[in-house]
Amino acid sequence: MRYIHGFPRIGEQRELKKALENYWNKNINRDELQKTAKELRIRHWNYQKDAGIDYISSNDFSFYDLMIDTIVMMGAEPARYRDIEDSFERYFAMARGDSKHKALAMTKWLNTNYHYFVPEIEPGQKFSPNTEKIVSEYTEAKENGIKTKINLIGPVTFLDFARGTKGNDPLDELESAVEIYAEILRTISRLDKNITVQFDEPALVKDPSKKMLKALESAYSKLSNIAGNIDIFVSTYFEHANEAVDVLVNTDIKGIGLDFVYGPKNLDSVEKIAKSGKLLIAGVVDGRNIWVSDIDGKVEFLNKLPIEKEQVIVSSSCSLLHVPYTLRYEEKMDKNVKSWLSFALEKLDELRIIDKLYRGETLGIDEEPYLKNRKVNKTRKSSVQIHSLSVKERLESLTYTQKERQMPAPQRLKIQHEVLKYPILPTTTIGSFPQTAEVRKLRKDFKEGAIGEKEYKSKIKEFIDYCVKVQEEAGLDVLVHGEFERNDMVEYFGEMLEGVTFSQNGWVQSYGSRCVKPPIIFGDISRPKPMTVEWITYAQSRTEKIMKGMLTGPVTMLNWSFVRDDLPKETVYKQMALAIADEVADLQDAGIKIIQVDEAAFKEGYPLRSENRAQYERVAVEAFKISTAVAKPETQIHTHMCYSDFNDIMPTIDAMDADVITIETARNGNRLLEAFKNYNYQKEVGAGVYDIHSPRIPSVEELEKEIADRLSVFPASKLWVNPDCGLKTRKWEEVIPSLENMVKATRNIRAKIVTL
Predict the structure, then answer these.
(1) What is the CATH number of domain 412-755?
(2) Residue 643 confidence (pLDDT) above 80
(3) Is residue 693 among the annotated active site residues?
């Protein structure tokens, strides 16, 4: 039996992304959007059916995010959205915000680059079931000849990943939440004679507390006995879930999903599952990375499991949402590198072959792909494209001065204030400015050879000129060049590094319509030539104000990439760090006085188990410091982090030794900034004062309040003012007034401080 936890929903050519953006821009109507969504769902189900997958998911499709879908399913929309009568528009208001409503807070789904929207749970929260989407999708699949399992985010994860509105623990509302889940299961039970429900419970892999495990026992003791025609599978992934298994084997659920790729300690639970008689959904095909499976190795692993084969369902390690759709459109990729890869559709074929070999079945038409797989795994180990002696020697000869800045931060900041002369509450942005259709077309035309380099550079400089003009007229203190030459903050750099390649169509959903195309790190990394110096120095030549150099840090480069699995990750981090260090040195030598080395993905790379975190922190901090150690005391190093809870990692952030860190606080108020205050952070912090993921334009009064709120927590002498994140997804007509209002609000607050 073959099982997929979930499937990419964005479409093999990003059809959903395009339809959503056309809908938001009023180029298509709701019916046309729904038509595209239905076509995608049916296509995705059929691909899985044709590949011989036995357990195909419904309710894994979403217009924006499955957690928002679950909020709707639970009738848990916050009260502030209830004035929106149209449920469809209410849904998008929660996701994106509108002129009257702020969007829900957004954060990362465990340690991935996928974002989810955080439910808000009140003390005594009232829930009410809404099964319209579940019923509709299951029925739609059935009408097209496909029997699906129904995917639900489980009650423990839903509440654990939520936020209490009044400091309350959402898990306290378990009993009432489970009552709603029970009603939903009763509705599901009427859909078919026999039906399978997959409850996703990834919260169980994060050092579960006694309270969480008690909640787990309570929830599934009840839910597993709601209807006799429902088989319940509880699915975990990204780490081991041994404590949870100890609980679940004593309930009446049908099966347990374990990730053996990223949770090797799950082996400790196999005998318990075997003795319980439950099914084991064995996650052996990597759902998070894109390297071709070692089919022989996977079969050997399965054969050694201490459980009867009749109890084993061969599965992906997690939803395939986290990998690109298919290799079939990759026409330009190096043929050797391509042969080492496997995207979502290709993983379906791997799963089928692994299952056949495990069951002792005849391969038939799968014989040739199997033999090819054996050959590819062998050639990848010996390829000369992968290894570089010079990179290896450089790493081995690293000195102390290449790993640490040579002056303590308080002394550096004093020098920097004297050199840079920025005012109290300096204003800046995070880096990117609107990536308009004109900008994207220019890059596309240049890449495809439709225009020459001279014309391309001339147009990019025009965009930079306009961006500098906008910032100067808005009154910002520290400017950026706008990043118009960059398709993505990771992809842009990856394209210029040795040992890194890109797909043409390897898009992965980050949230909503936002997709990223992660770099593929297949070999040793080095930087052949400068990557940003030409554009940053040009921008600096157009203004008397300080121009920030913008780089992506080594930790984020790796955490947002598909990283080779044939080398210790620590070694790859250091290789990337040296490449970034070379760019920092060149920018500094070119006269750039502030350099931002973004680590937006620093927190999301954290291991889910506390026992593994010290090693990650050591490696990640060392990589960042290698990338910035070359900076002179007067060169100010900034970094930026997105959507992170910093309370438990403040010593690590401090150890990174950046001079200024900018963080997202618009959706989260002072909660994140308080971590810096409580830690007595002695460097400087840029606190986001408006949400760039929403099209709404904040007023001066609103922004004054936001800044005043930040000042109630952090001193003005150490505080910068900025938007939450980069502005590439916004329109100029949204960006310009928002920045103007931000600067006006800051100046008003400055005047009050001076008066005091």
Answers:
(1) 3.20.20.210
(2) no
(3) yes
